[in-house]
Amino acid sequence: MEDFNSETDSDYTSYWRDWFISSRGNEYFCEIDEDYLTDRFNLTGLNTEVEYYQYALDLVTDVFDLDCDDDMRERIEKSARQLYGLVHARYIVTTRGLAKMVDKFKKGEFGKCPRVMCDQHPLLPMGQSDIPNVSSVKLYCAKCEDLYNPKSTRHAAVDGAYFGTSFHNILFQVFPQLVPLKSTRRYEPKSFGFRVHAYAALQRWQDDKRDEMRIRLRRAGVDSGFEEDDDEDFDEPDEVDMDAENLDNPLNDPRVNRTTV
Amino acid sequence: MSSSSQIAETWISSFCSILGHEYFAEVSEDFIEDDFNLTGLQSQVPMYKEALEMILDVEPEDDDDDLTDEEDISVSDDMLDNGDRGAAKPDDPYRRSSASRRHQHMRLASDLSVIEASAELLYGLIHQRYITSRPGIQQMAEKYELQHFGVCPRVHCAAAKVLPVGTSDTPGVDTVKLFCPSCLDIYTPPNSRFQSVDGAYFGTTFGCLFFMTYPEVEVGKMLRVPPVLPAAANTIAGNGGAADPANLSSGNWLASQEPTQINGIAASNLAPGLGPGKTYSPRIYGFRVSERSRAGPRMTWLRSRPTDLSELDEVAVYIRDDSEEEGSEIEEDEGGLTEPGRGKSRGGSGGRGVLEYDGYWNSGMGRDGWGS
């Protein structure tokens, strides 16, 4: 760390960033382009968020040449990490940033979903807040659409705001082909082969919510994107299956009539 | 004769202390020595007799000792003879002969590794049965309390404690998984060393049976953030369980507003990690992503839970629907084909009918409220 000043004039311009993304615990970060960092527009408002903003920026862009004591350096170092994180949250929703994150996503660098029914689907990092120091980074599984804590405790120290609340959703808007097929498969808690009533009743209720949603989407002409879409597992009410043409007109659907009695 | 008197480490305790075997309980020797508990295992485990001896730390017996002894064991495995239990006792002086020692060496050379594998399989299968027995489940309860099995990785479960379960009771099908009672889902253990532990050694029954055995275990201890509650939610979930003293005395805020029990378990213990406020809804710059978007949310059902738990009381819902149906005849003509069948299936399966009627039920609630 200490000898990077001597390197600032060399061609190896991304020294600090290289060190940062390769250090332990920062595996989820991608490298921000020099161009992006030096464009002041991209840093709008960050000067009020980050202490020693100018020094921190110099450090991140490897032009830091302030002579200061270790204490000061430590504080600037900390600010630089925070600055990098906040810029990172903005960078990863840009085209180039998304592409870099998609690469990491495809390689599974953010880990695999721990949920058994998700079959090791790769995860994406996200934050529950865009404000720093609220909560640590979480992992989003696109298959079950839920959030998980990173396995390793070293990631618990990474701020969720460095990835933001929007990034992973934007990613799937931009690359809809990456949206996995959803599955209706689920774990049924059983005892001696029998389902437990309380759990089973809840799961029946949930399954009903799912079927309602699928009917809603079918009516809206949207592909619901389930693996089991070709009606084996889809417990749609019989009457809807039988008069498919009725679906076009919601008023013809017996379910609708029933609710409006 | 049980292991408690022995000072040297037994095979069982050394097996349980192996890295990756942290989830296992130590099966008591009494349990293993009861042949009833081993019913049917002989046909599943190769070198069954040797494996059993290894688990119980019995010196392998000498083949030329006499043949009757050998017969004793096989007979005992078939549970025909109760008098032969002593055959497996570790302190049987008869078996500690020098002849048997000599024989042991021969055996060691040939197939120790096979026996070791068999012993692991046998122990696992016994373990599957043991943890559903009273002493076994108690032992697992202690391990659960000490968080030996870890916590749920799901963010909204707020580190609820999990239990090891299998997805199959047949060995060799799948590895051990972790069951979270807070979201009713199963997860892969975080550490890869558990990838070598067979799920059948824990079985499919244990997870549920545990929470049925200990209904007072608080599943969502960390989840004490009151969600938005519906204004009117009287308790119709009768079941006579309204006066659960444990629930009331613990100052459970839920107790006053929701049915204290639903479908036979405490309402606060029914998937407390699910429902409003504990699900993730995707947002971009603060705006929710529409369901109709190609990348929109499709899995909210998986983590949902009714705000008003009495919706899950299928019998009450059925009775209510039924009485409302009598009052209105408008639907009769609609699905002439399916209406009668639907009524039957509701009675029969108890589930589908409620599902079909949910939309109707909600609208009924909005219109009339509960009592009418």
From TrEMBL, chain A:
<dbReference type="GO" id="GO:0005956">
    <property type="term" value="C:protein kinase CK2 complex"/>
</dbReference>
<dbReference type="Pfam" id="PF01214">
    <property type="entry name" value="CK_II_beta"/>
</dbReference>
<comment type="function">
    <text>Regulatory subunit of casein kinase II/CK2. As part of the kinase complex regulates the basal catalytic activity of the alpha subunit a constitutively active serine/threonine-protein kinase that phosphorylates a large number of substrates containing acidic residues C-terminal to the phosphorylated serine or threonine.</text>
</comment>
<feature type="compositionally biased region" description="Acidic residues">
    <location>
        <begin position="225"/>
        <end position="246"/>
    </location>
</feature>
<dbReference type="GO" id="GO:0005737">
    <property type="term" value="C:cytoplasm"/>
</dbReference>
<comment type="subunit">
    <text>Tetramer of two alpha and two beta subunits.</text>
</comment>
<protein>
    <recommendedName>
        <fullName>Casein kinase II subunit beta</fullName>
    </recommendedName>
</protein>
<feature type="region of interest" description="Disordered">
    <location>
        <begin position="222"/>
        <end position="261"/>
    </location>
</feature>
<dbReference type="GO" id="GO:0034456">
    <property type="term" value="C:UTP-C complex"/>
</dbReference>
<dbReference type="InterPro" id="IPR035991">
    <property type="entry name" value="Casein_kinase_II_beta-like"/>
</dbReference>
<dbReference type="InterPro" id="IPR000704">
    <property type="entry name" value="Casein_kinase_II_reg-sub"/>
</dbReference>
<comment type="similarity">
    <text>Belongs to the casein kinase 2 subunit beta family.</text>
</comment>
<dbReference type="InterPro" id="IPR016149">
    <property type="entry name" value="Casein_kin_II_reg-sub_N"/>
</dbReference>
<comment type="subunit">
    <text>Tetramer composed of two alpha chains, one beta chain and one beta' chain.</text>
</comment>
<dbReference type="GO" id="GO:0019887">
    <property type="term" value="F:protein kinase regulator activity"/>
</dbReference>
<dbReference type="GO" id="GO:0006359">
    <property type="term" value="P:regulation of transcription by RNA polymerase III"/>
</dbReference>
From TrEMBL, chain B:
<feature type="region of interest" description="Disordered">
    <location>
        <begin position="320"/>
        <end position="372"/>
    </location>
</feature>
<dbReference type="GO" id="GO:0034456">
    <property type="term" value="C:UTP-C complex"/>
</dbReference>
<dbReference type="InterPro" id="IPR016149">
    <property type="entry name" value="Casein_kin_II_reg-sub_N"/>
</dbReference>
<feature type="compositionally biased region" description="Basic and acidic residues">
    <location>
        <begin position="82"/>
        <end position="95"/>
    </location>
</feature>
<comment type="subunit">
    <text>Tetramer composed of two alpha chains, one beta chain and one beta' chain.</text>
</comment>
<comment type="subunit">
    <text>Tetramer of two alpha and two beta subunits.</text>
</comment>
<feature type="compositionally biased region" description="Acidic residues">
    <location>
        <begin position="60"/>
        <end position="81"/>
    </location>
</feature>
<dbReference type="InterPro" id="IPR000704">
    <property type="entry name" value="Casein_kinase_II_reg-sub"/>
</dbReference>
<feature type="compositionally biased region" description="Acidic residues">
    <location>
        <begin position="322"/>
        <end position="336"/>
    </location>
</feature>
<dbReference type="GO" id="GO:0006359">
    <property type="term" value="P:regulation of transcription by RNA polymerase III"/>
</dbReference>
<comment type="function">
    <text>Regulatory subunit of casein kinase II/CK2. As part of the kinase complex regulates the basal catalytic activity of the alpha subunit a constitutively active serine/threonine-protein kinase that phosphorylates a large number of substrates containing acidic residues C-terminal to the phosphorylated serine or threonine.</text>
</comment>
<comment type="similarity">
    <text>Belongs to the casein kinase 2 subunit beta family.</text>
</comment>
<dbReference type="GO" id="GO:0005956">
    <property type="term" value="C:protein kinase CK2 complex"/>
</dbReference>
<feature type="region of interest" description="Disordered">
    <location>
        <begin position="60"/>
        <end position="102"/>
    </location>
</feature>
<dbReference type="InterPro" id="IPR035991">
    <property type="entry name" value="Casein_kinase_II_beta-like"/>
</dbReference>
<dbReference type="GO" id="GO:0019887">
    <property type="term" value="F:protein kinase regulator activity"/>
</dbReference>
<protein>
    <recommendedName>
        <fullName>Casein kinase II subunit beta</fullName>
    </recommendedName>
</protein>
<dbReference type="GO" id="GO:0005737">
    <property type="term" value="C:cytoplasm"/>
</dbReference>
<dbReference type="Pfam" id="PF01214">
    <property type="entry name" value="CK_II_beta"/>
</dbReference>
